[in-house]
C-alpha cells in the first residue's frame, strides 16, 4: 500500500479551515487525498509567540546570505586584485559606450598586485565549483543521520574561516588560493542538501512552497548586498582595500554561526523553547524520521527524481551562465563602466527575490484551497518559470544596443527562475521528505557541473568574438536548454509521496 493512504491513529491529523489564527493546518502526508483527511483541534495550534519554525527559517535565511557572500565576493574582488589584461573590443558588432568620457570598463582604474592571465583567473574562479560537486550527497546523508543543524551551520562557519585566510593564500601562491577556493566549494556543498533535510523535519506540507523558498532568497540578498559592498571595500584603504572584502564576510559568517547555535535545532522534538501546541502540530503533520538505511535501490529507480535532476541541471546551466558571465556581457557588449556594471548586476537578483516570494505564496494558496494537486502545482510553476526565462533570454538577443530593454529583459529572465523555487527545486520534499537531504545532494551535485561547464561554453563562443551575435547564440542555447529541462520534468515528475519514505509503508 502506498504511504500517505494509511496512517497510525496516533498520527492522524485533519484539516481545519477555520483556525483562530487564520492559518490552515496541512494534511499529514498526501494532502491531495481528501478522503483521508484528519482534523487538528484549532486550540492545539494557537500561539502568541513567533513560531519556532519561523525563527529557524529566519536564521537559515541569514545563513544563505552568508553562504552566497562567501561564494561571489571573489568574482567582484578579482577585478581589483589583478593587473588589467583588457583588450578593447574592436568589433563593429558591439554597442557604443554610454559615456565615452567615463568608460572605466575600458580605462580601468585598478592596478592590482597580481599579474594573472585571464585563463588563470578563470581557473581561480572555477575552482569553487570543482570542490562544490564533491560533497553534496555525503552532506545530505549526514544531515539525515545526525541532524541538519551542525551540517548546515558548520559548512558556513568553516567556509567563513577559510575566507579569512584567502588574502594570505593569494599572496603566498596562486596555487594555494585555488586550493582554498576548492575547499570552500567542498565545505559549502552540504549546505543546500542539509537545509532541505531541515525543512523535511520542520515545515508542514502546505507551507513548503512558502517558507523554504523565502528562506533561500538569502542567496539573492547575498548577491545584491555583496556586489556593491565589495566594490566599495576594494576602492577603500581599509585593511589594504580588496582583502577587507574577505575579512568582512568571513567574520560575519562566524558571528552568524554563534546565533545559529542558540536558535536552530534539528527538529521540533529537540527544540527546548518551542510551544507545546506547535510541537504537537508539527510532529503530527510531518512524517516521522526513519531510522533505516538509505534505500538506494528505490532512490536510483525513482522516476520522478530523474525529472527533478534533469530540470535542476538545466535551470542551473542558465543560472550559472548569467551569474558568472553577466558582468562580461555588461562590460564588453553594453559597455557599462565598472560602477554601472555593479549596479546592473544586482538588479536581476532583486527581481528574482520578488518573484520567488510571490510565486511561493501563490503555489501554497492554490494547494491549500484544493485548486490544483501538488503534482499539477509544481508542474505549472516550473512551466511558468522556464517559459518566462526562455522568452526573455531570446528577446535579449534581438534588442541590440537598447541598454534599458537589455537590462529589463535580463532582469526578467533571472526573475522567472524564482518560480522554480516553489516548483521543481522544492519537489524533493514532496516525493520523500525523510530522504530530502540525500535527494537534494544527488541533484545539486549534478547541477553543480554547469558551474564550470557554463563559463567554459561562454568562453568558447566569445573567444576573440565579443559580439552581439555571439551573445545572441549564448542566450538562444541557454533558452533551449531551459525549455528542455522543463519538458522532461513535466513528463517524469509525480508529486505523490513515495511508498518507501515511511516506516509504515507496506
From TrEMBL:
Location of the Major facilitator superfamily (MFS) profile domain: 55-497
CDD domains according to UniProt: MFS_SLC17 (cd17318)
Superkingdom of the organism of origin: Eukaryota
Cytoplasm is among the record's keywords: no
Keywords, alphabetical: Cell membrane, Cytoplasmic vesicle, Glycoprotein, Lysosome, Membrane, Symport, Synapse, Transmembrane, Transmembrane helix, Transport
Residues annotated as transmembrane: 54-81, 123-143, 150-170, 245-265, 298-323, 343-363, 383-400, 406-426, 438-461, 473-492
GO terms of molecular function: symporter activity
GO cellular component terms, A-Z: basolateral plasma membrane; lysosomal membrane; synaptic vesicle membrane
Function according to Swiss-Prot or TrEMBL: Receptor for CM101, a polysaccharide produced by group B Streptococcus with antipathoangiogenic properties.
Annotated protein name in UniProt: Sialin
Amino acid at each position: 500500500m502506498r504511504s500517505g493512504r494509511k496512517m497510525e491513529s496516533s498520527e492522524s491529523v485533519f484539516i481545519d479551515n477555520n483556525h483562530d489564527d487564520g492559518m490552515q493546518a496541512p494534511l499529514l502526508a498526501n494532502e491531495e487525498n481528501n478522503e483521508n483527511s484528519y482534523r487538528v483541534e484549532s486550540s492545539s495550534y494557537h500561539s502568541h509567540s513567533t513560531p519556532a519554525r519561523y525563527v529557524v527559517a529566519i536564521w537559515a535565511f541569514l545563513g544563505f546570505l552568508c553562504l552566497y557572500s562567501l561564494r561571489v565576493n571573489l568574482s567582484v574582488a578579482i577585478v581589483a586584485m589583478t593587473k588589467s589584461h583588457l583588450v578593447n573590443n574592436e568589433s563593429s558588432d558591439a554597442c557604443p559606450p554610454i559615456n565615452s568620457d567615463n568608460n572605466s570598463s575600458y580605462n580601468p582604474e585598478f592596478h592590482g598586485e597580481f599579474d594573472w592571465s585571464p585563463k588563470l583567473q578563470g581557473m581561480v574562479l572555477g575552482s569553487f565549483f570543482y570542490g562544490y560537486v564533491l560533497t553534496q550527497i555525503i552532506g545530505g546523508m549526514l544531515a539525515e543521520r545526525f541532524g541538519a543543524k551542525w551540517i548546515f551551520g558548520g559548512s558556513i562557519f568553516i567556509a567563513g574561516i577559510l575566507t579569512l585566510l584567502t588574502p594570505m593564500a593569494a599572496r603566498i601562491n596562486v596555487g594555494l588560493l585555488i586550493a582554498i577556493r576548492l575547499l570552500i566549494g567542498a565545505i559549502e556543498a552540504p549546505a543546500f542538501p542539509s537545509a532541505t533535510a531541515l525543512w523535511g523535519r520542520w515545515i508542514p506540507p502546505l507551507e513548503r512552497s512558502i517558507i523554504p523558498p523565502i528562506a533561500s532568497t538569502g542567496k539573492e540578498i547575498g548577491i545584491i548586498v555583496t556586489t556593491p559592498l565589495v566594490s566599495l571595500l576594494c576602492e577603500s584603504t581599509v585593511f589594504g582595500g580588496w582583502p577587507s572584502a574577505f575579512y568582512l564576510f568571513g567574520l560575519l559568517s562566524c558571528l552568524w554561526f554563534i546565533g545559529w547555535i542558540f536558535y536552530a535545532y534539528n527538529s521540533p522534538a529537540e527544540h527546548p523553547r518551542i510551544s507545546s501546541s506547535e510541537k504537537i502540530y508539527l510532529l503530527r503533520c510531518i512524517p516521522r524520521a526513519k531510522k533505516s538505511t538509505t534505500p538506494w535501490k528505490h532512490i536510483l529507480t525513482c522516476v520522478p527524481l530523474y525529472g527533478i535532476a534533469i530540470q535542476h541541471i538545466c535551470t542551473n546551466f542558465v543560472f550559472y551562465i548569467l551569474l558568472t558571465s553577466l558582468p562580461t556581457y555588461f562590460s564588453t557588449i553594453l559597455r557599462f563602466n565598472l560602477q554601472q556594471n555593479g549596479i546592473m548586476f544586482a538588479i536581476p537578483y532583486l527581481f528574482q527575490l520578488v518573484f520567488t516570494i510571490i510565486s511561493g505564496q501563490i503555489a501554497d494558496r492554490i494547494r491549500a484551497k484544493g485548486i490544483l494537486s501538488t503534482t499539477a502545482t509544481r508542474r505549472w510553476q516550473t512551466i511558468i518559470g522556464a517559459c518566462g526565462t526562455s522568452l526573455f533570454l531570446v528577446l535579449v538577443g534581438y534588442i541590440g544596443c537598447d541598454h534599458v530593454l537589455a537590462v529589463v529583459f535580463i532582469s526578467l529572465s533571472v526573475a522567472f527562475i524564482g518560480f522554480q523555487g516553489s516548483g521543481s527545486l522544492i519537489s524533493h520534499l514532496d516525493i520523500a521528505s525523510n530522504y530530502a537531504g540525500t535527494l537534494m545532494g544527488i541533484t545539486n551535485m549534478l547541477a553543480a557541473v554547469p558551474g564550470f561547464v557554463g563559463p567554459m561554453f561562454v568562453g568558447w563562443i566569445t573567444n576573440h568574438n565579443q559580439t552581439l551575435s555571439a551573445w545572441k547564440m549564448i542566450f538562444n542555447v541557454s533558452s533551449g536548454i531551459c525549455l528542455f529541462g522543463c519538458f522532461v520534468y513535466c513528463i517524469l515528475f509525480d508529486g505523490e509521496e513515495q511508498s518507501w519514505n515511511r516506516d509504515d509503508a507496506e
